[in-house]
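Backbones bend. To wit:
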Amino acid sequence: MKKIMYCIMCAISFTYGANLNQSAPAEMVVMDYNWIEDNATDDATVYHEVKETPILEQNIQHGTQPGQMQEGQVDDSYIPQEVDLSALRDSDQIKVALLVPKKVIGAYANSVANSILTYLITKDTRFVFEVFDSGTQTPDALNLTMQKIKHKGYAFVIAAVTADGAQVLSKLVTDTLVFIPTVNHEDVSVQNPNIIYGGIDYATQIDALLPYADKKIVIFNDHSKLAQKITAIIKDRRIEDVVYEKEIKNMKANISYFFNRNRKLKKSSVFLNMPVVKSALIATQFSRYDDNISNILSTQVNYSPLLLTLTQYQDRKNFYIANSIGKIPFVLEDSNALLGSDITYNWITYATTVGLDYVFSNYFGSQNERIFDEGVFDRQIYYTVAVMQAMQGSFQKVDIPIPAEDLHTPSKW
């Protein structure tokens, strides 16, 4: 049975990956699976049809309705109302649409798509999965794509967009259930009752890290939006303790003067608000110049096995990372690996799976028990935060995981 599953996943991944990389947003990939029967033998031959369905723009109704956008506009007066989605429970198959502005999110498109496909394959159910590429996140692009999705009869959409795209969708979605795994609800000003968010709460992660911070705090970042956001959270919590802050935009430049005999670094806790490759390089500089720092602190951005391979143990032995990726069932971990998807360290893959699991159980029938136990409050998934230490060959928890409600998140679920 496992051998058959492996072969099917490889075939699906090959066909699906080729279709996802097509550039024309009007060509979608439809996957309609009637999954293997429980009594299938190792010699059984299983056929799954994968077909492409072109969707012509002239078949889409462009007339506006209350709450919908006219071309090039966002309806600021729209007050979202929760719609009745009971029809999802009555459907004889699971229909999932994935909206991806591929020009914006790039490689994230494959991560999200593979995690959706993996989860649906592991469930003993019939499903249809289709990918819609909006290209960009402009109001026109998202409006047209949502109309295409509605035209094809989808009532549930997973939208892998940035905060800007989520802001547009929050003023657009009227009669569809949308899950956005890439954005936290705190980053969107309009709260639409038909949208569920799965993005990490970086403020919660900073709150989990601050008990490990010394009285002196140093911040390094790379000027990205995320880095600036995390830096602002640290300053909001401990502005009086920040003794040194530096933006490093070009890692190829000579950065040695940031570390060589810099007395501000001595016995300080250093927040590295930048991706893992840059963080690893900076961590090695602390050891090289014997800066005698207390420790290094980071949010989810550095929870990656790359940190273990790009640094020596002496460079990372005091490296602490906040992690919101919880325990993963073996069947999902193994199946994701077969499709080349990382659910163990990729938080977008994890968040997508958790959100899909929540919707699958709460909207597609009560008989579907949840696999994950993350709480959902006010249309936002809340993750338990564990502080991890980068050891010689792995990450290990340094303390009991801190439940989200014990930090600054709501006490009632």
Observations:
- The first strand starts at residue 27 and ends at 34.
- Residues 2-20 form the longest helix (19 residues).
- The domain at 2-199+328-377 is CATH 3.40.50.2300 (Rossmann fold).
